[in-house]
Amino acid sequence: MIKEISGVIIECVMGNIADQPDMMAIVNAANAHLRPGGGVAGAIHRAAGPGLEEECQKYAPIEPGQAVITAGYNLPNKYVIHTLGPVYGVDKPEAKLLSDCYRNSLLLAEQHGIDSIAFPAISTGYFRYPLEQATDVALKTVIEMIPQLKQVKKIRFVLFSESDLVVYKAELARLTGS
Ligand code: AR6
């Protein structure tokens, strides 16, 4: 599914965040210590190689909602933006912290001249944020940011299952009135 809002393309696809070769940056659903871990972080660190973890140690630990940027190492992407989502039911207020992840990642992308960026569904795996609620926060935050974006021209949401993709598509259609 592809939508264009004020010259910025928003896409929702099913796939692996570590296999998005046409994106200048990908976003990591990181842990506070910026270590490999499982899920998205594990896939990204495996594909990037040990240089990524080494650079990450300069910035760790990070707080929920914060984002930091590194090179992409063996990934096909120039940059990785690492952000720490809230653990649902623990880090509060969850919606604000999750929104901060998307906003701060996009602000870093703007500062680094990034024209295309792919996001996973932050916090919806090990951190147990309910997918529908997290989707609402993710898409609303990105759409709100569009008027401020001068560098970012393409934003891709990469979902790990067909059922997650269905939720994203429905929410994007609802928010964009089509
Ligand atoms: N590509 C795209 N999406 C994925 C992939 C992938 N390769 N792998 C999982 N997902 P999670 P979190 C989906 O757990 O909830 C880690 O251990 C997954 O189905 O990666 O923010 C870190 O080290 C889910 O929908 O991130 C942290 O400790 C979404 O991506 C902690 O988990 C996020 O799942 C972060 O937890």
From TrEMBL:
Domain Macro per the UniProt entry, residue ranges: 1-176
SUPFAM superfamilies: Macro domain-like
InterPro entries, per database record: Macro_dom, Macro_dom-like
Protein name: Macro domain-containing protein
CDD domains reported in the protein's UniProt record: Macro_OAADPr_deacetylase (cd02908)
PANTHER family on file: GANGLIOSIDE INDUCED DIFFERENTIATION ASSOCIATED PROTEIN 2-RELATED, MACRO DOMAIN-CONTAINING PROTEIN
Organism name: Candidatus Saccharicenans subterraneus
Lineage: Bacteria, Candidatus Aminicenantota, Candidatus Aminicenantia, Candidatus Aminicenantales, Candidatus Saccharicenantaceae
